[in-house]
Specification:
By secondary structure, the protein is mainly alpha-helical. The protein has 8 helices and 2 strands. Helix 2 crosses helix 3.
Length: 147
């Protein structure tokens, strides 16, 4: 099955995505450590993939105050394109594959859940195994062992 991944796939945190080998811009990892997961996620849901104007000064009534302040501290005021980070569809698929394999789901079931082809799931599985993130029992599927 192929298609657009469902938008309701779970999104990892920046550090979880980074831990499974997905590229996350270093500034998002830093901001997540500084302000926390929820404030960053709310900001990314609103501004991810769009250009954002970092203000010269941040006041208490500025939306997403903590995140905007962290961006201003790192980059200064000006226009900045905000990365989608862990909310992107490829990251959500990679995370769903990881969780599915950890929970013993078959490749076909994971592919169906993610709205992608079984080969996509196999590719993610191979990368996870190469990184040592799946044990032999987690890498085995209900139809047999990993190939």
């Amino acid at each position: 099955m192929t298609g657009t991944p469902p938008r309701d796939l779970p999104a990892p945190t920046c550090s979880e995505a980074y831990a499974i080998g997905v590229y996350i811009p270093p500034h998002l990892l830093s901001i997540e450590r500084t302000v926390g997961v929820e404030p960053l996620r709310a900001f990314l849901e609103e501004w991810g993939g769009r250009e954002f104007g970092i203000p010269t000064t941040v006041t208490a009534d500025t939306p997403h105050t903590e995140v905007v302040d962290a961006l201003r501290a790192q980059f200064g005021p000006g226009r900045f394109t905000i990365a989608v980070g862990p909310l992107g569809s490829n990251v959500r698929v990679a995370w769903s594959v990881y969780l599915g394999l950890k929970n013993g789901m078959s490749l076909a079931d994971i592919a169906r859940q993610c709205g992608c082809h079984a080969r996509t799931v196999s590719g993610h599985k191979k990368r996870l195994m190469d990184r040592g993130l799946l044990s032999a029992t987690e890498a085995s599927t209900p139809k047999g062992t990993a190939k």
